[in-house]
Amino acid sequence: MSQPMKGLVRFIADLRNAREREVEAKRINQELANIRNKFKDTGLSGYQKKKYICKLIYIYILGYEVNFGHLESISLISSNTYSEKQIGYLAVSVLLNENSDMLHLVINSIKKDLSSMNEYFTCLALNCIATVGGSTISDALADDIFKLLISPTSQDFVRKKAALTILRLYRRDRKIIPPSRADRIIAQIDSDNLGVATSVASLVSEMVQENPDAYKLAYSKVVRRLQHLVFENGCPEEYYYYTVPAPWFFVKLLRLLQFFPPSTDETIKLSIRKVITQIISANSIPSKNIQQSNAQNAVLFEAIDLAIHLDMDHNLMEQIVQILGQFLTSKETNTRYLAIGALANMASRYEQVPISSHLITITQSLRDRDISVRRKAIDLLYSICNASNVRTIVNELLKYLQAADFSIRGEMVIRIAVLVEKYATEYQWYVDISLRLLSIAGPHVNDEVWQRVVQIVVNNENLQEYSVKTIFQYLKSANCNENLIKVGGYLLGEYGNLISTQQNSGPLDQFLALHDKFPSCSAFTKGLLLTTYIKFVNLFPEIKPQLVQVFEYNAKSVDSELQQRSYEYLKMSSAEHMKLLPIIWDEMPPFPERSSTMLTRLKTKRITNTEGKRLWAPGSRRQKELQAAAATSATATAAVASTNTQNLLFEEASNTPTTSSIPVLTPLVSTPTKPTPTPAEELLTSGWEQNYKKLILNPEGIFYEDSMLQIGLRSDYRRHLGCVILYFRNNSGSTLQSLSVEITNHENPKLAVSTKNFPDSSIAANKTTQQVIMLEAHEPFLESPTVKITYLAGTLQVLTLKLPVVLEKFMLPTELSTDDYFKRWAQIAATGGTGLESQLVFKNRAFGAGINDGRIMAALQWSRIDNADRNPRNIVGAGIIHTSNGGSFGCLVRLEPNEDQSMYRVTVRATDARIPAILAKNISLMYQLL
């Protein structure tokens, strides 16, 4: 143990005993002078430096300025004594900030500790980096911290701190970790240590918000980890919290999935559904122990949010609504708040979920003792409102509005006004509720509300007489607020003549009802009423003398705006201008139709209040974009599944011959073409071509092999359906960890690709696991899918290979006679369609080296029609492409070798213009890979 610093203890005691600020300041100044003199001694021991620096830290924390001692603090960092190094790092963390020029002096010492064999020194350095942060440290040390995170020799607690340090730096500078390092970070989610996995999950959750594509490999890893936690008891005993396995890790994983768009892979979707269903079943019954209940609710509500994000099936949503309905009556405020919030999120996305069955309980929440619950209840009532319950909800909101907190009245008024306008089916009800709202809300009404009422009344002739009659009754009351006066002034000025013949509603009655309120109004409202009076001069000439008196009086107003307006209206009402009044003050035309500014304000507020960048945020622009994209993707990538789940490969391929069309014979061209590699091909693992070519020609074989991993492949195809199984065998002498398989489909939605299982994340020596891939050809496609395989074998290994899946795999050879061949060839030519023929000339690098052209074409599913060509070396064949959306397409081919130039020419014709160029390119590619 380190020596007790008695001088520090005594100094702190002196300061605590100081009864006045002046006494404390005097004692501190004395100590600062003493420390300054001590630091002049070059022979000061590490213990003494540590003691004096601790005093400086304490003085700084009390709020006094400390402008020396920084170099001594930095020198302590270089000490080999833990306590001295600890105080040195503490001083740097407290006394320096990210903009300090002295940070350059400490970087070398930190860098040395990051590479130290002493993990405790390394952790001190990481703590200091995370506390100080800044671009100076990030630029110099980011690579070292990243190496600590991924190094297999790092201790678990070091890797955990490294992940959190990177997270701290990443929040300040998004460029410190390039996307190319994403796979190495994601691999740590599979760590056996839940502390490391939890820290990395936090880091990935932050990074994926900026670049979801770079971190999409994390999706399957997270789902697999959730399965392990839920169904395989994959949690050490020390991580259980009141019988709940690792609730913090659970919540982070569930939330991480919400930063991705929903997966279209059926296996992943089914796995997530099972996980969510199990979580809901296991945590839906509250525990009497408050700590256990909190842990259960944390996991449960995050699972519910994920279910909302993934748009789960209706039955599951009904089950969730039932559980949340029970939580609405919980004695715990937090539980009620979370339940109402979850229901509000659900209601904003689903119209068919029966949330309204809990309407009575929800309206009772408006009277909850906690204001946060009341706010959420308002959100929920707004979300579940529809034409059938609008009157009930609006009445409840109006009742609550009278006693609501001032801080939420403004937003409540906007919500009520929007609901009334959106769902009103009767004119009178709309007018009654709108004016009642203005009467109750008083000064809490935004201008948009009363202006919108005026706009709707002006644009609907059937509303005008009833509206004027109703607002006039409000104007007669003594407690009529200014917003009602504004509405009354506008409407009476426009349509007062509609009620002028009714009892007690004559012109003078209307004028007196308005002018009684005139003295207490604001300058803006007074100006509006003056405009009403000049309209009265036009509508009711019999009360012109009273109106002129008002103009004369206000023409002397101290308010320049009212003065000018009154003077102008006075001139207009003079005898020489009376003929102009009907023209100038004619009835206002209808307002142009436009979107409600109230609704726009509500949407803006909802977007602002969303948490992070989770993609399901209600009303957000990203949500709408992703919903549209997901709808297209879901339609295009429908699930492909074998009917026999026990036999993953098709037992036999159907081979029903069908007639179709065939190729043309044209003269040989000697211009060679060189294919341009696609971006996907440029990133493929070196040497991918050889096994790719073999597996195009054969249904099974070795897909990839090195000293650590062997990947075998088996495939089978039935018309438009296909199945590929990858077998992973561990060739190394130790366990391979964090195995992940990510499939990239370049031809979505033409080709649907889905998986049937998750391969084991760990493979023991000489053991095997497998990945089943299901395929469905919706339309003709060109690019093969790529598969990215990552695993940990000391360091992260990444393989990117092209799956041997080409359009010809979905083609069946068809037998034709020579006469039928040329007949169908002529039929294709006769259609005159563009693109029905494609021709390529290419060079074969292995020409003449025992290449069997007939075998290659047969492996590409072309039949061979004998005696169809005068040159026996030429190959003529036919086949039928099968797709699920477009049907079947007949295809014809002619392959012509030119031995003199080591060239080939291939000509393809088909009944669909999308196919010839694809088949010709595939044949050309196969020969160039030989």
TrEMBL record:
InterPro entries: Adaptor_Complx_Large_Subunit (IPR050840), AP2_complex_asu (IPR017104), ARM-like (IPR011989), ARM-type_fold (IPR016024), Clathrin/coatomer_adapt-like_N (IPR002553), Clathrin_a-adaptin_app_sub_C (IPR003164), Clathrin_a/b/g-adaptin_app_Ig (IPR008152), Clathrin_app_Ig-like_sf (IPR013041). GO terms for biological process: clathrin-dependent endocytosis; intracellular protein transport. GO terms for cellular component: AP-2 adaptor complex. Pfam families: Adaptin_N, Alpha_adaptin_C, Alpha_adaptinC2. The keyword Membrane applies. SUPFAM superfamilies: ARM repeat, Clathrin adaptor appendage domain, Subdomain of clathrin and coatomer appendage domain. Residues 693-804 form the Clathrin adaptor alpha/beta/gamma-adaptin appendage Ig-like subdomain domain. It is found in: Membrane, Coated pit. GO terms for molecular function: clathrin adaptor activity. It is a peripheral membrane protein. Belongs to the adaptor complexes large subunit family. Adaptins are components of the adaptor complexes which link clathrin to receptors in coated vesicles. Clathrin-associated protein complexes are believed to interact with the cytoplasmic tails of membrane proteins, leading to their selection and concentration. This is AP-2 complex subunit alpha. It comes from Magnusiomyces paraingens.
